[in-house]
Amino acid sequence: MKKPSVALYLLVAALLCLVTGVNASADIINLEDQTGPSLFAAASAQTLNYSTSSGPLTITGGTVLTGTTNLPADETSVYGTASFGNSLSNTITMTFTSPINNFFFDLLNGRNAVETFTVADNLGNTQSFNLAPNLSLGVVTVGFPTVGSVITITMADPEWDFFIDNIGFNQATPGTATPEPGTMLLLGVGVLGLAAVKLMKR
Asked: For 23-172, which CATH superfamily applies?
């Protein structure tokens, strides 16, 4: 009986990667599993806990609002904080159990003026920028290629009002052409398969 070729084994491996999804370590949290009121006055501080491929994620400092009043940039569930809320903080903190890569999230300005925000992590990465008013769809995707295990978002205005959504990490950041780990593995398996076929023809 003829032994299966190396190329056949490589083809089976590639198909298994495709079916099972090699990029199991990538995460995106869109907060649609959460619901809350539409106004801060009807909400109080809330801690969110998620199980991720990098271990537990804890989000603190704000609360979940759904169909947020006067937030045209996003009418779904978001995690936000405001100075007129109940026991809310001017800093939203995301805490992981280990450092992550390619971290990004949507930041939404809840105020009707241009506001300054600072995003920082516990490795010294910091980014400050101005964000358009909420009525001008004040939303931006913020990200770091390498990030620590604690990320903070703070608004400069003492009367703060802002939200986060669509938290992602360990995958290609939006707007980049960086292949995901699964894509790279499949490409590598394909190259090995072609090399094996060439060797067998010799």
From this structure: Nucleoplasmin core domain (2.60.120.340)
Cα–Cα dist 105/167, whole Å: 4
How far is C-alpha 95 from the geometric centre of its chain's CA atoms?
A: 13
Longest CA pairwise span in the chain (Å): 78
Write the burial class of residue 4 (CB in 10 Å: 0-12 exposed, 13-18 middle, 19+ buried).
exposed
For the chain, the structural domain boundaries read 23-172
Q: Encode the chain in three state secondary structure.
A: CCCCCHHHHHHHHHHHHHHHCCCCCCEEECCCCCCCCCCHHHCECCCEEEEECCEEEEEECCEEEECCCCCCCCCCEEEEEECCCECCCCEEEEEECCCEEEEEEEEEECCCCCEEEEEEECCCCEEEEEECCHHHCCEEEEEEEEECCEEEEEECCCCCEEEEEEEEECCCCCCCCCCCHHHHHHHHHHHHHHHHHHHHHC
Of 188 and 89, which is predicted with more confidence? Answer: 89
- List pLDDT tens digits, range 152-191: 999 999 999 999 999 999 887 665 333 334 444 445 555 5
Distance CA 131, CA 145 (A): 21
